[in-house]
């Protein structure tokens, strides 16, 4: 009977040792899996960061181009506005010249 108990104790002890080893293996496997997942996640995050940066540069370039277009449009508008004002002034001068030089004669004949 003591022999049977001794064998049972040894078996139990061996099983406990085996279970401890399995537990250690599971924990190390778990850590390896976690490290692999972390590396994978880091790569994805780096990819997303790079994509965000590229999109940011693209948006910045678009905004610069829009700004240049508005500047050119504004300068063109000011230029055209200046030409229109010049033309109006020339038209006024022509009208005044015509009135004073020819208008008096025309109105006298009427």
Describe the overall structure.
With 110 residues, this protein is an all-alpha fold. The chain contains 1 helix and no strands. Residues 2-51 form a coiled coil. Keywords: Coiled coil.
Distance between the termini: 152 Å
Mean pLDDT: 83
Helix content: over 70%
Instruction: Give the low-pLDDT segments.
Output: none
Coiled coil: 2-51
Keywords: Coiled coil
Quickly describe the structure.
The model has no long low-confidence stretch (mean pLDDT 83). This protein has 110 residues and is mainly alpha-helical.
Topology:
Elements: H1 2-109
Keywords:
110 residues, mainly alpha, 1 helix, 0% strand, coiled coil
